Amino acid sequence: MRTFVRLCWLLLGVLFIFSGLIKLNDPIGTAYKLEEYFEVFAADFGSFFLAFKNIARTLSITLSSLEVVLGVALLLRWNLRFTLWSLFGLLVFFTFLTFYSAFFNKVTDCGCFGDFIKLTPWQSFSKDVFLLVLWAIVFFNQRYLRRVFAKGTLGTMYITFAGAVAVGIGVYALGHLPYFDFLPYKVGNNIGKLMQPSAPLRYKYIMAKGSETQEFTEYPTDTTWKFKQMVALNPEDGPKIIDFRVWGADQADVTQEVLKGNKLLLIVQGLEKADRDRFEQINATLTGADSSKKRIETMIITSNSPNEFDVFRHEVNLSGKYYFADATVLKSMIRSNPGFMLLQNGVVKGKFHYHDIPDREKLEELL
């Protein structure tokens, strides 16, 4: 029993640290997910929850750092009873969120492990129930964990250091880009290829005849069977990018044009939260790219309306052709507003936060 409890203790601590670090790797992505929860709660329980959207990024770093700190505290067995009750509170909070998402089908991806591990709502809820079971085993068997690895001032120093490191990791990722990019638009990916299935999709057909239901791998020629549903047998081979589309002010589709040649995309996700202090340097980069011997064509892409963006670009003296895309797509492309993406025939060669704006030499070096 002693060994089993210690294994549960170790697993619980490691999973909390892992979960927190994955979220801190992409705090903006975690904030997007929190905003989605707040919008759902506002619709179901009242507009009060919309106030939390303004602090979603702060909550993202705070909650993620808390997971790391509590995981470290558990492994050190620092103030074990207090640490376990704190873990319990966090677990109850996350379990409620995932159950609510799963039962009411509100938020289809909990974001528990960012985009590193995609979990369905019920998988997320099951994961939290599993963690609660681990917690219960550890909590009711604390007698097997009497040895403390860091006491008094030393323990406080370790916990403080863990908290400072966790917050530092999140703040740096917030002001730059994720350390590890798990999104389909990461550097090295070919957007055009990811828009196509990696293998021919195969389907099964669910048909009904009276009260009888049967599955067919080929569509039946017997017309007495009535079609109910078509299900992919190999969904993992489907397109990884299904919503990438860019269009002009006249609604003309320019998606394929974006994926040809050398393109420097300036992505302005939304004007309300776009950082306006960097556009002098952004304009210099756009001008430098236009004069490059590598024939880099610049394109500005936004999710705002033409009238709104026209006013904005005059305010920041932004010149160049601008196009439009879905806001969610732009958020997936880069965790920066504004931000740069460099493409070569649809292959992502570089991504740049507005704190790390490249010059022409850097762009040419990547092509």
UniProtKB/TrEMBL annotation:
Q: Name one GO biological process term.
A: methylamine metabolic process
Is the keyword Transmembrane helix assigned to this protein? yes
Tell me the keywords, alphabetical order: Membrane, Transmembrane, Transmembrane helix
Q: The organism sits in which domain of life? A: Bacteria
InterPro entries recorded = Methylamine_util_MauE
The UniProt entry lists membrane topology as: Multi-pass membrane protein
Q: Where is the Methylamine utilisation protein MauE domain?
A: 1-139
Q: Where in the cell is it found?
A: Membrane
Q: How is this protein named in the record?
A: DoxX family protein
**The organism of origin for this protein:** Hymenobacter oligotrophus
